[in-house]
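Renewal narrative, Specific Aim 1. Our central claim is that a sequence can be written position by position from structural information alone. The example that follows is taken directly from our test logs and has not been curated for this report. It begins with the structure tokens describing the chain, in the order in which they were read.
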């Protein structure tokens, strides 16, 4: 379930959500809200996640994916206190924004716009799921991403005006103008553990990363993701322990379908 949900999220928001997924909790009041929200069970739906200028939609994913998006955490393990239905029962969500709100949001810088839309999702969760939650920092296993001996092997790119993008297939990442921070966020999905970027590398990079994913057939001769990162990108992952942001769910209810 995690891999499917993560893939859908990554493809939908390659440049925005990945890079701010570790942002601190947003506490300021939000002047925006969704005009109409429809939530239904979706047991047979294809997993997807879509953000457009006037709407948000999600299908085939359980409720924890919606909470993850609203609160900016990466992994299911970073949401504590969820009931089993919120982890396993797929739902569909269609949230519409009225024209006036969409126009006001469009005037904001991209990252500020996404912060405001996170607040809108948090308000939706409070209204439709009766969600009450708080943020904590807990010690846990992490990976630290550093530059390997010999230096980085990626091509640094100048902004081309179109923004970064990346394609994540099974065991292959093809990236254009993607930050190392965004790469670390996506690899967190792959490895199921928070990755802290300590490379000091800034800006966008072009690269291709190929590795044997977990469960690959014995005939797959590609290296492990750890070896591939070092040999192909000049980066190194090392296990460590450190603070991990978690969302503690104090109360949540199944939404009434409509």
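The sequence written for that structure reads:
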């Amino acid at each position: 379930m995690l891999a499917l949900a993560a893939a859908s999220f990554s493809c939908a928001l390659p440049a925005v959500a990945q890079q701010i997924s570790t942002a601190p909790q947003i506490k300021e009041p939000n002047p925006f809200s969704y005009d109409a929200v429809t939530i239904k069970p979706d047991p047979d739906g294809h997993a997807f996640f879509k953000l457009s200028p006037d709407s948000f939609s999600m299908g085939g994913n359980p409720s924890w994916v919606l909470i993850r998006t609203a609160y900016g955490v990466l992994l299911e393990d970073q949401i504590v206190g969820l009931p089993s239905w919120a982890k396993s029962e797929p739902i569909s969500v269609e949230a519409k924004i009225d024209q006036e709100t969409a126009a006001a949001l469009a005037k904001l810088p991209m990252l500020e716009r996404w912060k405001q839309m996170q607040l809108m999702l948090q308000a939706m969760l409070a209204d439709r799921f009766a969600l009450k939650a708080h943020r904590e920092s807990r010690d846990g296993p992490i990976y630290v991403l550093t530059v390997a001996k010999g230096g980085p092997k990626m091509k640094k790119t100048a902004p081309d005006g179109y923004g970064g993008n990346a394609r994540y297939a099974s065991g292959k990442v093809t990236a254009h103008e993607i930050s190392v921070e965004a790469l670390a966020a996506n690899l967190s999905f792959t490895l199921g553990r928070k990755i802290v970027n300590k490379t000091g590398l800034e800006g966008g990079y072009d690269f291709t990363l190929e590795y044997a994913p977990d469960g690959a057939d014995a005939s797959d001769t590609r290296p492990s993701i750890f070896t591939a990162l070092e040999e192909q990108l000049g980066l190194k992952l090392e296990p460590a322990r450190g603070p991990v942001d978690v969302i503690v769910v104090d109360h949540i209810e199944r939404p009434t379908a409509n």
